[in-house]
């Protein structure tokens, strides 16, 4: 296709107005909590590592391997974002790489919602490789919603190129005005796609661009730079010891079985086992309301507004919460689960799961993943975890 004219664009827009939008509810809410991290004891270790292994704000491919590493930016520990491009010539977008969803979408040039007006919008008429469709969809998040249309174009993640990649263009967004990113790149399984489009990881895998069907995350503590997502392999410099592999409860979602959850050597949750989604797209640890309330009582947290606060002077004396997964203990110490708000007050990162389920379930977000390097293995339907450097 040649570069689109605005006349053709308007005809496409009119045609879309005649099409009904299908609806999809994403079971995990998007959360963006502006926080400032408390300095951790391991900061010097991280700083030394970053000095020895500096990363540019562009992809890095290691010689002799098919590993592609893309830097992510830590925005005040509320989320991690990286850059991709769409179209020919390429247009750059800042996206969240999200294991809790499966769709790639960015704002459309047609979107006039306030949420779109402050972010980069895709100008399809400037791309010579753009291909439209009339397939529409909606996504409802816990904190907002969007509706969009599926289109096709060339998408680049570092040196990985997916041609004729289906992706979503948002036509309207609601409740997402405060977000600090342009769009979302879903890395969950294709069966969870709200738009019905093949996820970009699957298309890259099918095209042979990724020989080993794995991707991995290292999420830095405190530092704006240093975080990475890597595709096609694992860089062992980012973790200590050996990876512990955890099978998924079922192929088709990044959910693992948790044996139990303990604090002060007592089981506080999952006494008979439970499920947990390992989600890079949210910043918190979420669980059943009754358990979260009990945790707050155990650590002496008091509610204030939508958060629970503790005295900053007692943070180092508070107990760790330990998730036992596949027989291995994964402690989350208080300096990791307590954050500071903009006024310097300390609050917890435990939140009630808003989605009601028949069985006990948890969401392990960035609070957990900052401590543990994570590998998502699509080839074997498993997740690898190891202490991060």
From TrEMBL:
GO terms for cellular component: extracellular region. Keywords: Aspartyl protease, Disulfide bond, Hydrolase, Protease, Secreted, Signal. InterPro entries: Aspartic_peptidase_A1, Aspartic_peptidase_AS, Aspartic_peptidase_N, PEPTIDASE_A1, Peptidase_aspartic_dom_sf. It comes from the Eukaryota. The active site is at 98, 279. The keyword Thylakoid does not apply. It holds the Pfam family A1_Propeptide. Disulfide bonds join 111-116, 270-274, 312-346. SUPFAM superfamilies: Acid proteases. Residues 80-386 form the Peptidase A1 domain. Belongs to the peptidase A1 family. This is Peptidase A1 domain-containing protein.
């Amino acid at each position: 296709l040649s570069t689109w004219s605005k006349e053709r664009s308007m005809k496409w827009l009119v045609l879309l107005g005649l099409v009904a939008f299908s609806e999809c509810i994403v079971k995990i809410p998007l959360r963006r909590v502006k926080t400032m991290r408390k300095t951790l004891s391991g900061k010097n270790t991280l700083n030394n590592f970053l000095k020895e292994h500096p990363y540019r704000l562009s992809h890095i491919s290691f010689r002799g391997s098919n590993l592609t590493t893309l830097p992510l930016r830590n925005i005040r520990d509320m989320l991690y974002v990286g850059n991709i491009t769409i179209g020919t010539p390429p247009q750059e977008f800042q996206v969240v790489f999200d294991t809790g969803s499966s769709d790639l979408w960015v704002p459309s040039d047609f979107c006039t919602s306030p949420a779109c007006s402050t972010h980069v919008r895709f100008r399809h008429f400037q791309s010579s490789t753009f291909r439209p469709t009339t397939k529409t969809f909606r996504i409802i998040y816990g904190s907002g919603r969007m509706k969009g249309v599926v289109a096709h174009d060339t998408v680049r993640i570092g040196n990985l190129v997916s041609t004729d990649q289906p992706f979503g263009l948002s036509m309207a967004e609601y409740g997402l005005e405060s977000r600090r990113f342009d769009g979302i790149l879903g890395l969950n399984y294709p069966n969870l796609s709200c738009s019905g489009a093949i996820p970009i990881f699957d298309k890259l895998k099918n095209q042979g661009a990724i020989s080993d069907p794995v991707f991995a995350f290292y999420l830095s503590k405190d530092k704006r730079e240093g975080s990475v997502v890597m595709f096609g392999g694992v860089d062992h410099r980012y973790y200590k010891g050996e990876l512990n592999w955890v099978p998924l409860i079922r192929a088709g979602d990044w959910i693992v079985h948790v044996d139990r959850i303990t604090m002060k050597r007592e089981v506080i949750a999952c006494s008979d086992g439970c499920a947990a989604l390992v989600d890079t797209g949210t910043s918190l640890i979420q669980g059943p309301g009754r358990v979260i309330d009990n945790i707050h009582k155990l650590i002496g947290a008091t509610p204030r507004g939508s958060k629970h606060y503790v005295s900053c002077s007692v943070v180092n004396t508070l107990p760790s919460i330990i998730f036992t997964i596949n027989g291995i203990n994964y402690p989350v110490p208080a300096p990791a689960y307590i954050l500071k708000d903009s006024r310097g007050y300390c609050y917890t990162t435990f939140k009630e799961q808003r989605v009601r389920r028949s069985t006990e379930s948890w969401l392990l977000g960035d609070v957990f993943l900052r401590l543990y390097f994570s590998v998502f293995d699509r080839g074997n339907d498993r997740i690898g975890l190891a202490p991060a450097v």
